[in-house]
């Protein structure tokens, strides 16, 4: 990667799950060693972002642009295809039988006016209002259930947005306030591992299981094999293990004599407030994963599903009989289309109940974790660049000129 002759800030970009950042600081022009160091940092981030893009699947919205909407619709219910097809087929067969029965009644009524067949037709047609009331009640139960399912999905999306924000907040506090480079690196590593541990736990797995990210994190240098084995061996949730490690790093920083673990010495009044700020952020991260566990473990009451399916079947059994006397053989077509749409809503709501899986409708945890990893790396490199620029001579700093010539650019893909 080459550098422009004009002042140009270091850049970090990730086309899949990161942000392209151009910090508004001038590049030192009179120090080739610093320029080479920043160029290497850029190259490292670019290589990381490329591997992150290859390592994670495409986003749902990017993948959906290249697919027909019906293909995506049926793909979203592939796990429930048996229930979907069986229910619709049963109702269509019943509608065909009702249409056949209505046709026979009309034939008998034509040959014997005023007879029992005509009376049956009149009685069935008079049930329209009652069926409409049952249909209204069914719609209420369907909408109520789907909204409850969607609220769970939406809350999980908000929670993971907060997880991303808090992880990046910790990364920035780490590089701005901590003074020990070894502890800084360890802190950044466990901020990243925390997100992957949350993803694995919310899917009922461990980082060490086959197909999970543990071995890959070891290969990328974010965990040692000893740390991974320890995470597997201790009887606790793995995200909490990461939070404990972050607290241990903070404790080790405060135990460095003379307050040298932080950039502000112990005589500075801010020094004592930093621990409270960091601990509050860690407490919030603990609350976030606890809320995610609550969503995954609680589920919906069984009565929601029972009342929805009962009212669904009852309505279409009665409606098919009533509709058949009015629209005849159009009844199976109407029942097929209406029941298919309703089954889509029922199955879709069922999938939204657990938003942390790997279905197309679930939130993209892989992309969220990749975003956190890429941006923590970018924060680490940006922190070193900012220190290098800030320590430069005042002649190299032109805030007004930089503000007009260099603007921060951001590229955040729409995740969902």
TrEMBL record:
User: Topology with regard to the membrane?
Assistant: Multi-pass membrane protein
Which terms does the record give in the GO molecular function aspect?
Answer: chloride channel activity
Keyword check for Transmembrane, yes or no: yes
Q: Where is this region: Disordered?
A: 1-36
Task: Name the major location.
Answer: membrane
Keyword Ion transport in annotation: yes
- Keywords noted in UniProt: Cell membrane, Ion transport, Membrane, Transmembrane, Transmembrane helix, Transport
Intracellular or extracellular location(s): Cell membrane
- Report the InterPro entries cross-referenced here: YneE/VCCN1/2-like
Q: Which GO terms describe its cellular component?
A: plasma membrane
Q: Where is the chain membrane-spanning?
A: 81-102, 130-148, 304-323, 329-348
Family matches, as PANTHER family: UPF0187 PROTEIN YNEE, VOLTAGE-DEPENDENT ANION CHANNEL-FORMING PROTEIN YNEE
The identity of this protein, by name, is: Bestrophin family protein
Q: Which organism is it from?
A: Skeletonema marinoi
């Amino acid at each position: 990667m080459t550098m422009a002759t004009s002042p140009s800030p270091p850049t970090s970009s990730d086309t899949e799950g990161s942000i392209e950042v151009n910090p508004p600081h001038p590049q030192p022009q009179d120090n080739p060693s610093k320029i080479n160091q920043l160029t290497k940092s850029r190259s490292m981030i670019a290589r990381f972002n490329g591997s992150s893009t290859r390592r994670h699947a495409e986003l749902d919205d990017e993948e959906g642009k290249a697919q027909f909407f019906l293909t995506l619709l049926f793909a979203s219910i592939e796990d429930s295809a048996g229930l979907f097809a069986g229910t619709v087929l049963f109702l269509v067969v019943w509608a065909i039988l009702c249409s056949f029965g209505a046709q026979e009644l009309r034939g008998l009524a034509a040959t014997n006016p005023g007879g029992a067949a005509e009376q049956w037709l009149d009685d069935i047609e008079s049930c329209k209002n009652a069926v409409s009331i049952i249909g209204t009640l069914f719609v209420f139960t369907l909408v109520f259930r789907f909204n409850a399912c969607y609220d769970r999905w939406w809350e999980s999306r908000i929670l993971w947005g907060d997880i991303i924000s808090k992880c990046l907040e910790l990364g920035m506090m780490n590089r701005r306030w901590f003074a020990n480079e070894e502890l800084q690196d360890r802190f950044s590593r466990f901020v990243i591992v925390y997100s992957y541990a949350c993803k694995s736990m919310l899917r009922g797995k461990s980082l060490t299981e086959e197909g999970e990210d543990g071995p890959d994190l070891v290969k990328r240098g974010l965990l040692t094999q000893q740390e991974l084995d320890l995470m597997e061996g201790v009887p606790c949730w793995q995200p909490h293990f990461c939070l404990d490690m972050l607290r241990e790093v903070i404790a080790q920083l405060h135990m460095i004599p003379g307050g040298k673990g932080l950039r502000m010495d112990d005589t500075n009044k801010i020094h004592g407030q930093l621990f409270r700020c960091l601990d509050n952020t860690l407490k919030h991260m603990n609350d976030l994963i606890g809320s995610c566990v609550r969503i995954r473990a609680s589920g919906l009451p069984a009565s929601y599903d029972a009342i929805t399916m009962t009212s669904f079947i009852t309505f279409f059994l009665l409606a098919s009989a009533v509709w058949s006397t009015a629209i005849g053989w159009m009844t199976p077509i109407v029942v097929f289309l209406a029941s298919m749409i309703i089954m889509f809503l029922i199955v879709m709501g069922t999938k939204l109940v657990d938003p942390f899986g790997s279905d197309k409708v679930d939130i993209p945890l892989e992309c969220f974790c990749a975003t956190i990893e890429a941006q923590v790396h970018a924060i680490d490199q940006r922190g070193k660049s900012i220190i290098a620029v800030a320590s430069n001579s005042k002649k190299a700093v032109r805030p007004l000129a930089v503000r007009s010539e260099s603007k921060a650019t951001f590229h955040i893909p729409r995740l969902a």
